[in-house]
Amino acid sequence: xxxxxxxxxxxxxxYEILGVPRNADADAIQRAYRKLARQYHPDVNSDPGAExxxxxLSEAYxxxxxxxxxxxxxxFGRDFRRMPEGAERWAGAGAGAGAxxxxxxxxxxxxxxxxFDFEDLFGGTGGGFFRGRGRAGPVSxxxxxxxxxxxxxxAYQGGRRRVTLAGPTGPREVQVxxxxxxxHGQRLRxxxxxxxxxxxxxxGDLYLVVRLxxxxxxxxxxxxxxxxxxxxxxxxxxxxxxAITIPDGEQVTVTVQPGTSTGxxxxxxxxxxxxxxxxxxxxxxxxxxxxxxxxxxxxxxTARETELFRELAEVSSFNPRERS
Length: 324
Known about the structure:
Keywords: Chaperone, DNA-binding. With 324 residues, the chain is α+β, with helices and mostly antiparallel strands.
C-alpha cells in the first residue's frame, strides 16, 4: 500500500497495517515493523501520507509487540483501551441462552462490535445500557492521546519536563518522563491522566505520541542517526581525523580513510539512539551514527590555491567520469 493511499484508519486492523497474519509470532511482527518503518519514516519519505502511515505502523507495533495488550486487542479490536477492567468476563459470557437472545440479552458478547460506541453502552446518554438490568459496577475512563515534540538531545539523554495540553475544559499541565532511546512514533503512557471514570471507576490513561525533532544537522532512521561530514578535497584524498559533536554533547572522532569521496558513509557503532533502559524487546540495541562524507571546494579560492589546483589538473590523470 502506498503512503499516499487513502484508508479508513480508524477501523484499519493492526495486523493488516503491518502486513502480518493474526497468528504471527513476535519476531515476524518486529521484522515487518522495521521494514515498513524504514520505508515510511518521514525523514526519508517525502510523500504527504508517509508521516501518518508511520504513526499507524508505530501504534500497531506498540500494541501487537506486547502480549497482554495484543490479547486485549484480539478480543475487543480498536476499542480495547476503552474497555473497563474485567470486560473479558463479559466478552466470554455469550455461550448461554442470553447470547441467543440477541444484543439486549444478559449474555451479550462484545466480539464483532469493534465499531460500537462503548461509552454510550456503559452509562452514556439515554440512561445507559445497564439501567434496569443491574449495574455493571465501576467503569474506567477512556484513554486519551496527544502529541509531544521531543528533541534529539532528549531522545539520547532522557529527562523530565512539563507539557501543556489542550483539553475540553481548558489547558492543563502534565509531568512527562522521557526515557533515553525514545523513538519517533513511540507512545509514552501516563497512567491515570486520561478520561475520568464513572461510578467510582479509575481514570483512563494518557498516551503521548512522540514527534522526534532532530534539528538541522541530523536525521534519524529507526535508531540510526545520520549527519553530513563536510571535507576539503585534500582531506578526502589523503585521509584525516575529524572531531564531531553528537546530539548528547559527546565529542567523537571520525576517521576518514584516504580516497574518500562524497557519499561514503562512515559508521560510528553504538553512537545512535541508545537502547531503551527498560522494557526493551529482544533484538533491541543502540543505533549507529553515520557521517556522510561531502567533498567541498572553496567558493572563493586565493590566487595561490587556484595556481595549485591548476598544477594538479595538469599532472593528474584522474577522471571522475570514468568508471573504474
